Amino acid sequence: MKKPSIPKGTRDFSPLEVVKRNYVMNTIQSSFETFGFQPIETPSFENSDTLMGKYGEEGDRLIFKILNSGDYLRKVDEELYNKKNSGSLTPRISEKALRYDLTVPFARYVVQHQNEITFPFKRFQIQPVWRADRPQKGRFREFFQCDADVVGSKSLWQEVEFIQLYDTVFSALKLDGVTIKLNNRKILSGIAEVIGADDKLIDFTVALDKLDKIGEDGVKTEMLAKGISEVALLKLEPLFSFTGNASEKLDSLTELLSSSETGLEGISELRYIVDAVSELGLETAILEIDVTLARGLNYYTGAIFEVSPPSNVKMGSIGGGGRYDDLTGIFGLKDVSGVGVSFGLDRIYLVLEELNLFPETVSETTKVLFINFGQLEAMYAMKAISKLRKEGISAELYPDIAKNQKHLGKQMNYVNNRGIQFAVLAGEDEMKLNTYTLKNLKNGEQLSLDFKGLLELLS
After folding, report:
1. Percent of the chain's residues with pLDDT above 70
2. Chain-wide mean pLDDT for the chain?
3. Predicted pLDDT of residue 112
4. How far apart are CA 271 and CA 276, in angstroms?
């Protein structure tokens, strides 16, 4: 029989991994709530027309399509089938798709529930998403996103708050040295304009977004292949060598984009955000202007964010987001500006694991296990276990009876393998005296206690 397996890009999680992931999610959720965000959930799959066309050509290719139920080829005529054109065939056999992210479903939610929502609407959402991407370290086909968005406000204070939110979360996780990269799509539009490639804006931003992956030469090669001229690339050259602090980079950009009204507007917005953050201060995160940051999603229209882990960790971005003034408009609700960010749970987990930043208490499971010596002894133990549980102490009874020394050794091995610190031995002698023998597996100490003493020591 073939050994069972799971699809590439998906994972099983052990109890310890789940506990650690929950620690990260709970930390993020706590910060979301502190900043005033409210939770929502949306379905794992959406109608295809909700998702398609919202992420650019490359994003559309990564959307998992769901075959229609039943005889999905019934609606396909023979001529269309014989053409074997997947672009024409897919809409006839697949009307639904797994969500690619949480932002577009959120925009759909806002439009569908607009009469029930109080604007500005601040929501957070922690759910899995799916992408038909090539699996690699830190990149999976099924993964959780932890998103926070505000819709119904054009105020740049929202961008300022999201930078503070990132700083708050990573400070709570003790993850120092995180860099929050900041740019503005209006600046990118301005750059495309001044180099004479404004008709190639999407191709320009998609290529620029790959700078970290394929380098400067790779980006230029891709731009040339997309029809952006060598003259335009020469004008683009200063962009790859911008240095200095945020203010100095914005000064350089102002000079480069002096002829672009759109570009200057983007610079003005970034100055506002940078100045406000500078005055408010950040606890651990570093704010940096990155003029090559593009985030190749079509719906961003203003500020864009990307978060990089500490420099001593080889990992892609662990968060990102931006302003999307037109997103709800594609579903019929005009003039509703939004801005949001996402935390990459899986990558954050890997970074914390690599840097050994998970607290020891995160991996604590059952605190005490009672050894099972027989039916009467088990009942005696269960009465104590019930009382301990009511006091909030995690306790359990080994289910099988230790009939001999070998069985007892098996139970003690179980305690050690589970990482449980305390074991209670309660046999005939303890029952007669109404006591419990508590063994500390960490230091080998063994004590005879009544229930009050047991409770005090375990509390």
Report:
1. 96
2. 90
3. 95
4. 8
Amino acid, res. 202: I
Domain with 397 in it: 365-458
Do the Cβ atoms of 300 and 228 come closer than 8 Å? no
- Residue 85: the pLDDT is 61
Beta bridge mates, 442 = none
- Residue 212's pLDDT is 73
End-to-end CA distance of the chain: 50
3-state secondary structure at position 55:
coil
Scored b (16 or more CB within 10 A) or e, 330-344 reads bbebeebbbbbbbbb
DSSP-derived secondary structure for 81-112: HHHT-HHHHHHHH--EEE-S-SHHHHHHHHHH
Tokens of 359: 């607290």
Strand 368-370 with 395-397, pairing: parallel
Angle at 438 between CA 447 and CA 410, to 5 degrees: 130
For residue 345, give the CATH number of its domain: 3.30.930.10
Where residue 222 falls (left for φ over 0; alpha for ψ -120 to 50; beta otherwise) is alpha
pLDDT in tens, 33-72: 999 999 999 999 999 999 998 887 878 899 999 988 877 7
Residues 397 and 416 in one domain: yes
Tokens representing residue 419 in the block = 């990482």
**What DSSP designation does 135 have?**
P
Same domain, 58 and 203: yes
Using alpha carbons, list the distances in angstroms from residue 282 to 140, 168, 342, 365: 31, 8, 19, 35
Number of structural domains (the chain) is 2
Three-state DSSP at 389 gives: helix
**In the prediction, which pLDDT does 70 show?**
78
**Tokens at 232, concatenated:** 């335009």
Domain of 446, CATH number, reads 3.40.50.800
DSSP letter, residue 335: S
Q: Are residues 291 and 377 located together in one domain of the fold?
A: no
Exposure string of 378-395, with b = 16+ CB inside 10 Å and e = fewer, is bebbeebbeebeeeebeb
The residues, ordered by sequence, that sit 6+ positions from 51 with a Cβ below 8 Å of its Cβ are 63, 97, 99, 100, 104
Helix/strand number for the chain, H first, E second: 18, 16
- Phi, psi torsion values for 338, nearest 5 degrees: -140, 160
